[in-house]
Write a structure and sequence with these properties.
By secondary structure, the chain is an all-alpha fold. The protein has one domain (about 5-400): MFS general substrate transporter like domains (Growth Hormone, Chain: A, Up-down Bundle). Helices cover about 85% and strands about 0% of the residues. The chain has 19 helices and no strands. The relative contact order is 0.15.
Amino acid sequence: MASTEVKAERWGAAWAAMLGVFVLVVAEQLPVGLLTSLSSTLEVTEGLAGLSVTVPSIVAGLAAPVVPLLVGRLDRRVVLVGLMVIMTAANAVSWLAPTFGVLLVSRVFVGIAIGGFWAIGGGLAVSLVSPAKVPRATSIIFAGVAAANVLGVPLGTVLGDALGWRLAFAALGASAVVSLVALLVALPPLTAQAPVRPRLLVAQVRNRTVAVGLVVTLFAVAGHFAAFTFIGPMLRDIVGMSVSSVGPTLLAYGLVGLAGNLVAGALLARGVSRVVVTMLGVITLALGVLPIVGFQPISGIALILLWGLFFGGLSVSMQTWMITAAPKAVEAATALWVAVWNLSIGLGALVGGTAVDHLSLHAMVWIAGGAVLVSFVIGVTRSAALAAIPFRLVRGLYRRDGRRP
């Protein structure tokens, strides 16, 4: 095969992976825009309904490092296709779930697919194109995140509002089938360059730059999703808008997020950490003042769109952070980062739901802003000491149990 044909095939694989990421991100976040109707139909509180976001996110975080460990050197094409099959089947169960419990069980398998696919697909660019083109291929793959926010979640929300949340899940299932076909057609054989082993994962945690990036991701994403999971109630009870406005607002949020993704991708060559801390600083400001001045549609929507604009480029920026921090162990570093990202989504949704049910929406937004502020401080200082605090806390818990850390 001619070299130009090989390049065409591999760029097609990047686009197929982008479609897979798109479907997975929509699957993970779709309940965000459907919490009110979902909670009403299945007779649970909005805070409890937030578990439909929390559960797959936590499972995805656990699956992200485990799946690469289990598959060893197995062809990544086979792995990615298999994970999309799991995603398609699990979503069908979500669509038909008669109770909230059944829905949560199906979301466990959605989480497995998300974690495994993203851990392997996130660093796929290094196997598809030459080193000089890796940033561009990575941007294509992670455009699936922005596209999900721009099109998938908002359109699913509008569809769910008009025809019911079950039909929104059915449409997602159809998209998963399309993605499955694209992966089968476009992906070449992709044998892992070096299988992920536990020792390799541990080595990435000891990498100072990787560790700082993981902690920045932890607080930033947890803070974001503590608030974003409940954007529907926020629009209704803080900004003073109707439930029917959630879909159009999410569409606008996604559009500015796509713009943020494009701008961040263009600026990353000038300094990854500089781009990241700028985004985190603006998000902190937007969330911090939203409960104070966002009590009317104009100011509230403006702050929400500002938030979306600067969060839009965080995924590609942090993935680039991991690639540059661990160029010889991209899949291992990516697996850890995906684990932290998804666990943070679940943690954020859980904290947000607890705050909504036991405190108030205003308190929840300030808690979210406080978490992003912590990530901003760590990002600015790039302090290994600050970033090590969560790891030291875990080691301390082991010591209290009388076990070796």
